[in-house]
Design goal:
The complex is a heterodimer of chains A (137) and B (140).
Chain A (H helix, E strand, L loop, with lengths): L1 E13 L8 H8 L8 E13 L11 H16 L2 E2 H4 L10 H12 L7 E10 L2 E5 L5
Parallel strand pairs in A: 1-3
Antiparallel strand pairs in A: 1-2, 2-4, 4-5
Chain B lengths: L1 E14 L8 H8 L8 E14 L10 H16 L17 H15 L4 E10 L2 E5 L8
Antiparallel strand pairs in B: 1-2, 2-3, 3-4
Helix pairs in contact in B: 2-3
Classes of the chains: A alpha+beta (137), B alpha+beta (140).
């Protein structure tokens, strides 16, 4: 089994707000991330797939195909967007780094054919990242 | 859904690698220039990984405010700008980054209650790093 990781970057804005919370609860829980006008990050995405090395091609996965899938399924939807308003998953879900990692996994999982998705890592900043391995709990 | 959240922190400290139980030539042979009696320092990067169910109400594994407050008060203040050899943590322990990594894991394990601790990873320099997960195998 060989693991292959491809990186991508996207820039997006978001804010944290739960409509079921009072304004005071929202501010206490989310602090300055609750500003309704939003703020932004340069996100770095790392997608790790695993599989056997194909003896003919020497590839775990065709990197061009993986790049195209990441571009189409994730970057086209999230890059230079206001996540809360423009990405369907986040119309009713808070676009935390945790939920972004889960959404990326769910977007990529059905599209990957030859290789198995192992991990989605999303960096919100160089000092904060979330890993998701597709675990329910 | 279960996610893993990692936060990086930075502190600077000095240390000297020396075991009082062993003769001086053993210390010099084993620790080389790290055995210099006056000590030397590093900028330590600490990566703390916690895991848990993503709370549907907040979208979070744990609130970063809680993690930051704990790490700041219990780890960064305790070790930052200190000579590690003078601390009670290293009274009977050589302050290698292996031992420092284990000590920081133990402090988090004993005191941090907002999420499950997965591992602590430390970079002593850009060229070396150490990780400890309470004796468990690391995932990646």
């Amino acid at each position: 089994m060989v693991y292959l990781t491809r990186k991508a970057e996207f820039a997006a804005s978001h804010y944290y707000h739960n409509p079921n919370f009072t304004p005071e609860q929202n501010l206490a829980t989310f602090g300055k991330c609750n500003n309704p006008n939003g703020h932004g990050h340069n996100y770095t995405l790392e997608v790790t797939v695993k599989g056997k090395v194909d003896p003919q091609s020497g590839f775990v996965v065709d990197l061009k195909q993986l790049k195209d899938i990441m571009n189409r399924e994730v970057l086209d939807a999230m890059d230079h967007r206001f996540l809360n308003k423009e990405v369907p998953e986040f119309l009713h879900q808070i676009p935390t780094t945790e939920n972004i990692a889960i959404a990326v996994w769910q977007r990529l999982m059905p599209k990957l054919k030859s290789a198995q998705l192992h991990r989605v890592r999303v960096y919100e900043t160089p000092d904060l990242f979330v890993d998701f391995y597709g675990e329910a709990a | 859904m279960k996610a893993y959240l990692t936060r990086r922190y930075l502190f600077s400290a000095s240390h000297r690698l020396h075991s009082d139980l062993m003769p001086d030539d053993w210390n010099r042979d084993t620790y080389g220039k790290c055995n210099n009696p006056y000590g030397h320092g590093h900028n330590y990067h600490v990566e703390v990984t916690v895991s848990g169910k993503v709370d549907p109400a907040t979208g979070m594994v744990c609130n970063l405010v809680d993690l930051d407050a704990f790490v700041r008060s219990q780890i960064l203040v305790r070790f930052g700008h200190q000579n590690l050899n003078t601390l009670s943590d290293f009274k009977d322990l050589v302050p290698t980054t292996e031992n420092l990594c284990i000590r920081i894991y133990e402090i988090l394990q004993q005191g941090f209650r907002h999420a499950h601790l997965e591992k602590v990873r430390m970079e002593e320099t850009m060229m070396n790093s150490f990780a400890y997960a309470g004796g468990k195998e690391l995932r990646d």
